[in-house]
Amino acid sequence: MGIARITKHLIVHRWQVRKLFPPPVLERIGRAITACEASHRGQIRFVVEGALDGAPLFRGQSARERALDVFSQLRIWDTEHNNGVLIYLLLADRDVEIIADRGINARVGSGGWEQICRAMEAQFRQNRFEEGVIFGIRAIGKHLAQHFPGDGEDANELPDAPVVL
């Protein structure tokens, strides 16, 4: 665990998350998830966290490990077709992680998710956070529509609203 990472996490505050993701942006992201889910039976959640606190930070928890914790806490794995997908952004590290349940992950694989993450991070480096998140939602939606096409029923198993931690 480097001092530079600890420092970044200690100075990234909730106000910075609110600055980059104010309520209107969060609403648009939620609407993008709702619109995307109309074309498939998958479930997408977006979570943004400003920084790690306390023990996880000093223990050196990675964004990937934190994303796995959040995936579990939000019960994204608890969908009928095992096709829930989490987009997790750890703002202090500018690191995006996509965690997908086994039903969709077996069909897309880590390389597909990694490609989406890198494209989102490229947008974030240009301070295009909303655009980057919506790009990620749509890219994930294409995979879900291919492997879990909609059947006309609106079985929204998970909330579409973004989560700010």
Automatic annotation (TrEMBL):
<dbReference type="Pfam" id="PF04536">
    <property type="entry name" value="TPM_phosphatase"/>
</dbReference>
<protein>
    <submittedName>
        <fullName>TLP18.3/Psb32/MOLO-1 phosphatase superfamily protein</fullName>
    </submittedName>
</protein>
<feature type="domain" description="TPM">
    <location>
        <begin position="26"/>
        <end position="142"/>
    </location>
</feature>
<dbReference type="InterPro" id="IPR007621">
    <property type="entry name" value="TPM_dom"/>
</dbReference>
